[in-house]
Write the structure tokens for this entry.
Amino acid sequence: MTTPKTFHVKSFGCQMNVYDGERMGELMAAQGLTATADANDADLVVLNTCHIRERATEKVYSDIGRLRKHGRAPMIAIAGCVAQAEGEEIVRRAKVDVVVGPQAYHNLPELVAQAARGESAIDTDMPLASKFGALPARRKVSPSAFLTVQEGCDKFCTYCVVPYTRGAEVSRPFAAIVDEAKALVDAGAKEITLLGQNVNAWDDAEGRGLHGLIAALDRIEGLRRIRYTTSHPNDMRDGLIRAHAEVEKLMPFLHLPVQSGSDRILKAMNRSHSRNSYLRILDRVRAARPDIALSGDFIVGFPGETDAEFEETLSLVAEAGYAQAFSFKYSPRPGTPAAEMDGAVPAEVMDERLQRLQAALNRDQEAFNAGTVGKTCQVLLERRGKLPGQLIGKSPWLQSVHLMTDAAIGDMVEVDIVRADPNSLAGRLRS
Ligand code: 5AD
Ligand code: SF4
């Protein structure tokens, strides 16, 4: 196989994968390779994969097949959580050239060189020294940028592969994060979303906690907005809740997964919080920031979930009041405790529960969006819309807002919200 001159990175799954994909792209560009807009034009295709549910994993294999159609044979590198979970198995099953795990992708150039020499190129190590120090500096980014501050998970929810694919909870050092945030702002970022599987568990030896980190970012001139995701209820410390009242740049949005409204299911999931403790956290957050937009994650059809237990999830949704949420059918993952549990819920029951849950969540999302019509808010313009002169950006509550304006991408503009559509809001520039 010859040394690739062009590359394309395709990321699946969560925002951390998007971030990792960007950094792999920067790394390959620093090696002199050119990025292509289309995977079919690239000598090297990096599939940055997700292992969270079975469907996500299967996508990888269909994508590999598609890349090899039309007689093409690009070098294929599998990165991300499927790489970590399946390792050599992917090489056996799909004959890919490189396999690199989420904690080892700083070695991608070396692995690509090995593959070009016809050598085996698999690296799923989780080295003690972090990959971040070996990555090139950030140069050009979009107005809204991601920044990984924490990785991995020690919570071991019984359904979840993350503790196995991303490893133990690790916080990046304070100074490295602040430096990267400044580099992102110099490179054009106006908004930074701090990322972590348990981002609110971020901490350092001084015990600054995520709110201490947010306070430091608050002082960066030119940075207008701060967000963070994903949080665990048990790591919602007082300081972080207070930051929602005190730090103007911290946006009124909280993604706080609960997964189920039934205490018995929460216990079987090893969530280590109850329905009530979750709802009481929301009370405290709303006392600090009454207009906060709440987001969550739900799983229906966890092994043994009864109709009555599912109804408790619906009643929790009604009580909590979500502005948006993600909901999934339970998917057994190899190696997790839940995959060994009895009481599999039949597919048609899962389908029905998911439909009912999504109908309730959609209704609440529409109500939340309708509630912002008539308000005036700041919108950070992020991209072009379909119509000439139309730009799309985000409200403080993470809603997409489209409007006609001759302002530029990256500008923050004051907008009257005039209409709520199912998935976005229509806005008018305040004159
Ligand atoms: N099956 C279905 N959904 C899952 N999630 C995590 N693991 C599974 C699984 N095995 C969902 C959870 C989590 C989100 C990222 O994905 O809701 O919060
Ligand atoms: Fe998975 Fe639970 Fe950790 Fe979230 S908190 S990453 S759901 S184990």
